[in-house]
Design a protein that fits this description.
The complex is a heterodimer of chains A (278) and B (427).
Chain A: H1 2-35, H2 39-44, H3 57-64, H4 68-99, H5 105-114, H6 124-133, H7 140-144, H8 151-162, H9 166-174, H10 179-187, H11 192-208, H12 211-216, H13 225-233, H14 242-262, H15 264-274
Helix pairs in contact in A: 1-14, 3-14, 4-8, 4-11, 11-15, 13-14
Chain B: H1 2-22, E1 36-42, H2 50-64, E2 68-74, H3 78-90, E3 97-101, H4 102-110, H5 118-123, E4 141-142, E5 145-146, E6 149-161, H6 162-167, H7 179-189, E7 196-199, H8 204-213, H9 231-245, H10 255-263, E8 267-273, H11 277-283, E9 288-291, E10 301-310, H12 316-329, H13 332-342, H14 355-363, H15 366-373, E11 377-378, H16 387-402, H17 408-423
Parallel strand pairs in B: 1-2, 1-3, 7-8, 10-11
Antiparallel strand pairs in B: 3-10, 4-5, 6-8, 6-9, 6-10
Helix pairs in contact in B: 2-13, 8-9, 16-17
The chains are: A mainly alpha (278), B alpha/beta (427).
Chain lengths: 278, 427
């Protein structure tokens, strides 16, 4: 009896999970399917998931609309370069807030956190002025500059550092570590999952960012993928080019999708142990 | 310890190697001393390989004019292009030329970032403006003065499904000519639950179109007062609401939704931009046609799209060069090239005599209907100060009337009041 009840709840659980994952997967599947369809096919059988034939024309056309090759490089340099800088700034700031004593520490920390409540859009104009005065318009550094300090990352790592036992610090001191060595050798190895969680958020955010890079960049040497993608999405007067748009969207999001599939286990672990919701 | 040192070394070398990559783009400014480089912000408004076509056009100009080169910079949609133009102008780094939509031309003038063009027009001698369709010039004026030159213009036509017309016993070569006929056609073509008779994009643009067709006025020439609570305006809204109530028309659609519905056979007719002609041709498997928009008390065809603006805050020499570039872009050849690539109507009527354009129109004869309708065309409304905000509340009011949330009369009176309070400071 008990066993039967268990199988029943199991079936129910799996049914719910399957339905939920289908709901999440459907847009992705639809995107992939549409990207292989011709316009004519799309509107005559919009609900068929399997296209009549694999037709790569959309990808070829989409690729020719903008220099996507250099946009890829730019996006990678911007999002990973930024992550690299952020990890440095964020760990140092978090360490100071978690483990050092200085006057006004708490007030400063609260001020720091208010950054979380200010939407990026509202700071676009002052940021533009700053970047413009520094002569960094139309450069990758200009795109990264407003984000090199991250309140979210600092907060996340501070919490992680605070959770570490004091004895760890003492052990490091006994071994003769200076502060920098302490951070690098003692603290960072303990908070890998928090760092990874932050890395995922930061890279996806900046990979997908559009308005700010659009504003500060002009040449193909510094423009990211998202700017190229919008060429397909802004055709209010021209009718919706769904197949092209979907092909381009897949091209732009594929690297992140693949990365997630490959490192899935690692990522899930990171989010679970850092207590973050995606 | 050794391991860490190597890691540090690797990191350091990454930074060093990356810095020239990161700083790329800075060094390119240096060699412009002998050559003037004009920065040109353009939006994308229709489908197609537009960024490349624009770059090619600009390169062609630079080749013909060795002392000037044009840098074509894609700047997003119309809103983002304006935002960009405004932000960079404020930061002292204005583009030389930008393509803006009518609403933003007004704001650009209010913000003092657009150059008045009358002196340039005068310098070309009598009749320079005759090169354009007259209706397209409507959108180039702010309170009666020229601040813009037509570039990518569209008009709106009625698309209809000829197969459905035949099935319903209607003449497939003739669309509805008046508002009354539109109702009759809808009656014949609507199949409840399956397809609509007609779709009208529900936004400020069409609110203005129907009011104008009903003999109303949207605003005064100074752009400081609107007339949205007049009987003509309220009646126009009531007319559209009656189509929704009868089930002939959906309460909420926008341009892209309508063209998708049309090619999928979910509506027999749609009001839409001439910019969708190529999309409809390539996407639908049935016989289709276009005709003039049905006339109300008046036959009026609206236009839309973008126009060239020359920015303030650049040297007189650069402004002159910018004017020359604009002039070149609106010559018959270039106007034709852009029209064929983008689906906008060529702004220069002479373009239509060129062999490339004749061939294009043979493949897309519906485009000629759009051209011929220019005879009844007028510009895009509202034309007021603070135009985006006025347009925004017009759209929300329109939506709420069609959705049955508010009554036409009360909603339009409310709308007029809101417009009054926004425009009060310009009176």
């Amino acid at each position: 009896m008990v066993e039967r009840k268990n199988t029943l709840t199991n079936i129910l659980k799996y049914a719910i999970l399957i339905i939920a994952s289908l709901i999440i997967l459907f847009p992705l599947l639809w995107m992939i399917s549409v990207s292989f369809k011709t316009k004519l096919e799309l509107f005559s059988n919009p609900y068929d998931i399997l296209p009549e034939q694999i037709n790569l024309d959309n990808y070829i056309t989409a690729w020719g609309y903008a220099p996507f090759g250099s946009y890829y490089i730019n996006t990678i340099v911007i999002s990973f370069g930024l992550l690299f800088i952020q990890i440095i700034t964020v760990t140092m700031a978090a360490f100071a807030f978690a483990r050092m004593e200085f006057p006004g520490k708490n007030l400063l920390f609260i001020l720091f956190l208010t950054q979380l409540m200010i939407t990026a859009q509202s700071t676009i104009y002052p940021n533009y002025m700053t970047v413009s005065r520094l002569g960094l318009l139309d450069t990758k550094i200009g795109v990264m500059l407003p984000y090199i300090a991250s309140a979210m990352g600092t907060f996340l790592l501070r919490q992680a550092f605070m959770a570490l036992p004091l004895s760890l610090e003492d052990a490091g001191k006994l071994d003769g570590c200076n502060i920098l060595q302490m951070i690098v050798h003692v603290f960072i190895p303990q908070v890998k999952s928090s760092l990874l969680a932050f890395a995922i958020m930061s890279v996806t955010n900046h990979w997908n960012e559009f308005l700010w890079p659009l504003l500060v960049t002009e040449s193909d040497n510094s423009r990211p993928l998202t700017v190229g993608l919008t060429i397909f999405a802004q055709q209010a007067e021209g009718g919706a080019e769904w197949s092209l748009l979907m092909a381009a969207t897949l091209m732009v999001s594929l690297p992140l999708l693949l990365a997630f599939l490959i490192f899935q286990k690692l990522f899930v672990q990171a989010f679970v142990s850092s207590g973050l919701k995606g | 310890m050794k391991k860490e040192r190597t890691i540090l070394l690797v990191l350091l070398s990454i930074i060093l190697l990356a810095s020239p990559v990161l700083a790329a783009g800075q060094s390119e400014v240096s060699n412009e001393s002998e050559k003037m480089t004009l920065r040109f912000f353009f939006p994308i408004g229709t489908a197609g390989n537009l960024a490349n076509i624009m770059t090619n056009l600009c390169n062609e100009y630079s080749e013909q004019n060795p002392e000037v080169s044009i840098e074509a910079i894609y700047a997003g949609d119309y809103v983002q292009t304006f935002q960009r133009t405004l932000t960079s102008s404020r930061a002292g780094n204005p583009p030389d030329v930008a393509v803006l939509t009518n609403a933003d031309v007004w704001t650009a003038v209010d913000e003092g970032i657009a150059t008045p063009l009358q002196t340039f027009i005068d310098s070309e001698g009598e009749g320079f403006l005759d090169r354009f369709f007259p209706a397209m010039l409507d959108d180039c004026m702010v309170a009666g003065e020229y601040y813009a030159i037509p570039f990518q213009k569209s008009t709106h036509v009625l698309y209809y499904n000829k197969d459905m017309f035949r099935e319903a016993g209607l003449d497939p070569e003739k669309g509805p000519e008046t508002w009354e006929e539109l109702v009759e056609y809808c009656q014949a073509l609507t199949i409840p639950g399956e397809r609509y008779g007609v779709e009208v994009p529900i936004d400020f643009y069409y609110m203005a179109v129907f009011i104008l067709q009903n003999g109303g006025t949207i605003n005064n020439t100074d752009g400081s007062e609107t007339y949205l609570d007049t009987p003509a305006a309220i009646e126009a809204m009531q007319y559209l609401k009656s189509l929704v109530d009868a089930g002939y028309m959906p309460a909420k659609r926008l341009y892209g939704d309508s063209s998708s519905d049309f090619v999928a056979g979910k509506t027999a007719m749609m009001y839409n931009s001439s910019g969708s002609l190529a999309f409809v041709r390539d996407s639908c498997s049935f016989d289709w046609g276009v005709c003039y928009l049905p006339a109300g008390k008046e036959r009026i065809a609206p236009t839309g799209g973008g126009q060239f603006v020359i920015c303030q805050g650049i040297s007189e020499e650069r402004q002159k060069a910018a004017w020359d570039f604009i002039k070149w872009m609106t010559e018959p050849e270039q106007a034709a090239e852009w029209s064929i690539g983008s689906g906008f109507i060529a702004v220069n009527p002479k373009s239509f005599d060129l062999p490339v354009m004749v061939e294009y129109n043979n493949n897309l004869p519906q485009a000629l209907v759009a051209r011929d309708q220019m005879e009844y065309a007028m510009g895009e409304y509202p034309k007021t100060h603070n135009c985006r905000q006025i347009a925004q509340i017009m759209s929300t009011t329109f939506e709420s009337i069609m959705a049955g949330i508010s009554e036409p009369q009360a909603a339009m009176e409310e709308l007029q009041k809101s417009c009054d309070s926004i425009l009060n400071k310009y009176r």
